[in-house]
Automatic annotation (TrEMBL):
It comes from the Bacteria. Residues 2-174 form the N-(5'phosphoribosyl) anthranilate isomerase (PRAI) domain. The gene is trpF. InterPro entries: Aldolase_TIM, PRAI_dom, RibuloseP-bd_barrel, TrpF_fam. It comes from Arenivirga flava. This is N-(5'-phosphoribosyl)anthranilate isomerase.
Length: 181
């Protein structure tokens, strides 16, 4: 659905407590379904690097996206899995720690909460980074113009209910994001 609508990467959430969490056999089935048409990303929170990397291998994803990792855990994840996207929040550390991409997200990932992009006026990441947090089809174009990220990530802003993606909203989001690049 998301690929058809224009997504370049597909995030598969494997995090206890999330309305979007899936088990590893389901994650594997999603990766097989994508079949190389987009970058597949296993999104983890609350698990240590070893089981996270093991889960990423089992799911067969291209990228492991880690939430809540400090520098030490990020370094360990990098030893265990080749492609790491590190999620941080506006008050977090933007210095590159070896990750392929930094995701600047609201402190409560997947909550749909926005954060104040003016925080980027004080400091910006020096490496490639992606914007997330409360984006939706109506605000993403403005956010891209203001923040100038390398990419955007969305979850609840393209859902009709928590965990239920909406094709029309994904289409509108992708078109709006592309219109401002
Ligand atoms: O989406 C979740 O439920 C989630 C749970 C635990 C860790 C990360 C999670 N999502 C990570 C993402 O990359 C979301 O797309 C990102 O936080 C943006 O979410 P939203 O503000 O809802 O668009």
């Amino acid at each position: 659905m998301a690929i058809e609508a224009g997504a370049d990467a597909i995030g598969i959430v494997h995090a206890a407590g999330s309305p979007r969490t899936v088990d590893l056999p389901t994650a594997r089935a999603l990766v097989d379904h994508v079949a190389g048409r987009a970058t597949t990303v296993l999104v983890v929170k609350g698990i240590a690097p070893e089981p996270a990397a093991e889960a990423a291998r089992e799911a067969g994803v291209d990228v492991l996206q880690v939430h809540g990792y400090d520098r030490e855990r990020t370094g360990r994840a990098l030893e265990l899995f080749p492609r790491i996207w590190r999620a941080t929040s506006p008050g977090g550390d933007f210095d590159p720690w070896g990750e392929e991409l930094l995701l600047i997200d609201s402190p409560r990932a997947g909550s749909g909460e926005r954060w104040d992009l003016r925080a980027l006026l004080q400091r910006r990441p020096s490496g490639p980074w992606m914007l997330a947090g409360g984006l939706d089809p109506d605000n993403v174009a403005r956010a891209v113009l203001d923040a100038r990220p390398a990419g955007v990530d969305v979850s609840s802003g393209v859902e009709s209910a928590p965990g239920v993606k909406d094709l029309e909203r994904i289409r509108r989001f992708a078109a709006a994001a592309r219109s401002s690049t």
